[in-house]
Amino acid sequence: MITTGTFPVDPWCVREPHLALEVLAQTESVFALSNGHIGLRGNLDEGEPHAIPGTYLNSYYESRPLPYAEAGYGYPEDGQTVVDVTNGKLLRLLVDDEPFDVRYGELLQHERTLDLRAGTLSRCADWISPAGKRVRLRSTRLVSFAHRAVAAISYEVEAVDEDVRITVQSELVANEEQPHLTGDPRVAAALDKPLVAVEQDVEQHGALLVHRTRSSELLMAAGMDHVVTAPGRMTEETDARPDWARTTIVCGLAAGEVLRVVKFLAYGWSSVRSVPAVRDQVAAALTSARYSGWEGLLAGQRAYLDDFWDGADVEVDGDPVVQQAVRFGLFHILQAGARAERRAVPAKGLTGPGYDGHAFWDTEGFVLATLTATAPDAAADVLRWRHSTLDLAKERAELLGLRGAAFPWRTIRGQECSAYWPAGTAAFHVNAVIAFAAERYRLMTGDTSFEDDGGLELLVETARLWMSLGHHDARGAWHIDGVTGPDEYTAVVDDNVFTNLMAARNLRAAADACARNPGRARTLGASTEETASWRDAAKAVHIPYDADLGVHPQSESFTRYAEWDFEASKDDYPLLLHVPYFQLYRTQVVKQADLVLAMHWCPEAFDEGQKARNVDYYERRTVRDSSLSACTQSVMCARTGHLELAHDYLHEAALVDLRDLHGNARDGLHMASMAGAWSALVDGFGGMAIEESTLSIDPQLPDGMTRLAFRLHWHGMRVLVEVTGSQVRVELRDGADAVVDLLIAGERVQLSAEEPVVRPWRRRAPLLAQPPQPTGREPDTRE
């Protein structure tokens, strides 16, 4: 368990002042570096000790058969698992003849710092070897945002008290041994030596290895190059074998002298290009990195992040814990998507192997909500990745006997990889969430290029899916039966409210897009009769309502299910590891926000009284066994006046990894929860929403915050929103001739770059008392 003292609170960095081996696995995830293409876990430079060694390339995977006790028609046959590719982080150190290992000798000092503005992981160590030789070690690591294929490490060793011989072994190692796994389904499947050696080259100051996966036959190359600065005589030798390459540097240091090694790394992969093409791409990236030099890479990294923070930063006065956590989350979300360039954003980013490296619906639902507002180009790239898999989604729909496109519940390449139907294929809402993200991107950015490039086709094919899933009853109401909503403890149900509302939104968005693009709509075969049927279904969608209780069942008849005995299960969380799913499916226990999420994303479908009663009802039944829940509960508690409870949930969402609240940060960070923490601040306390096509700000600050300021991009312009205890100030930071229509606390105003708009805001009184939570599932008390 990560304690409050593991990472001291700091607004712009995450610092580990002392090495804590008991949480080494978690810190490997926290200190991971990535640019969306390359991911390096925060393993120690020398490679040992480690918990999970990890070097990842986005969408580079190995195929494996999915096991079934009983197969069924339409079940996916193959899974995909992210591969730990060639490790280039390794820099082994020998002091005289003794290896530097933090478990031996005397470690006088050890500190690691993740700098959120510099984009680097730095390390300082002061160590006395078992033979009494003292050295100081300083290393800094980065994965470049400016150079997509490049990572680099600056590694310095200083002799402290006396002369010493220093040996540095800089390595590339493929097919590292992976740890044994547990029975937790959220943990990745193990792969034994997935890489087959293709080629090895020794270069003047480094080496290059080329490998191919055994089954998926994806080609990858990794290369290293070095610049060595030594005070006196130095030798350098390089050797390579099929699964490793090593550059060995030896020199003598007198007291106070320093050996410096700058290691440049480059990675590339392809499913179609030749061995020479991939090899030469990596060689070129190394040459480019050497040309830029270490200082040039550092400067490029800082410039990239300065630009990002200028349009994305969130300031939280009065709550320094959340201040650190939200910036940590934004940094990792940027790392996950910045240079993905038409690849997925996995649920764990590139920070660990959890969930096999798969992307789920939370990519579009949560992560893209944040990226669209803070790094819109990255969001557009992820949407284009989804569109690139449309043909596979259409094939999947046809296999299921449906029209249109059925996107996978979990995937790397685009094929369905979920072996569990009730919480996989049956969760069709992923398709509506993808459409929702596409429409949100258009509304927020004003950019129609994605709609022109394939977004229209995506909306049309998902609309066709819903029309083949839904049906009109004898009274004309439109229903969707036999699906699973966000709550995976209530599966294969009829008329899940979230699914129905999101499907209706999808249908309306598709019809509107066809109206905007009539020529291309005709090319796609979308006639006026077909789009009219979409509008009819959306208008007639059935939304269950329990008039006796005054709440919405999250699916038909949910409120008549038996109540769950929360007292009896208070020590058995997460329930999915302790209780048969059959028992969960037939009772009123909610894994994660479902109906409550519907109120967040489709607020126009509920009046204020319904929102208040629904929050009250589902707070008492939601156990938050998913990291996706706390952020949504925070937003809706803020919007219904329960500001202190909303603040508690914000802490849970923001600290899910920095405090390892779900006990699985070792397998990688929770991208959606970190994005959800941003949403809890911006959508919840900041009151940001898009009403039709207008940006709306309607803030509510809890007592524990004195000021909230957030930056976002709106139609290509930077906007600053600042909320204090009595007023909200909105500033348009560029767009000299632009005028933006806004809603501020319900008042329609116009904003220009000439002058900010300032308006008062008033705290909303809750309609109901603050609701309790299930026994033992109250949010943790804020620090």
TrEMBL record:
Keyword Hydrolase: yes
Glycoside hydrolase family 65 C-terminal domain segment(s): 689-751
Region (Disordered): 762-783
Residues annotated as the enzyme's active site: E488
Binding site for substrate: W361, D362, K591, Q592
Keywords: Glycosidase, Hydrolase
Residue span(s) of domain Glycoside hydrolase family 65 central catalytic: 327-678
InterPro entries in UniProt: 6-hairpin_glycosidase_sf, 6hp_glycosidase-like_sf, Gal_mutarotase_sf_dom, GH65_N, Glyco_hydro_65_C, Glyco_hydro_65_M, Glyco_hydro_65_N, Malt_Pase/Glycosyl_Hdrlase
Transmembrane feature ranges: none
GO biological process: carbohydrate metabolic process
Entry GO MF terms: carbohydrate binding; glycosyltransferase activity; hydrolase activity, hydrolyzing O-glycosyl compounds
Residue span(s) of domain Glycoside hydrolase family 65 N-terminal: 17-270
Gene3D superfamilies (UniProt xref): 1.50.10.10, Glycoside hydrolase, family 65, N-terminal domain (2.70.98.40), Maltose phosphorylase, domain 3 (2.60.420.10)
Keyword Transferase: no
PANTHER family for the chain: GLYCOSYL HYDROLASE-RELATED, GLYCOSYL TRANSFERASE
Family: Belongs to the glycosyl hydrolase 65 family.
Protein's name in the database: GH65
Species name: uncultured Frankineae bacterium
The organism's taxonomic lineage, starting at the top: Bacteria, Bacillati, Actinomycetota, Actinomycetes, Frankiales
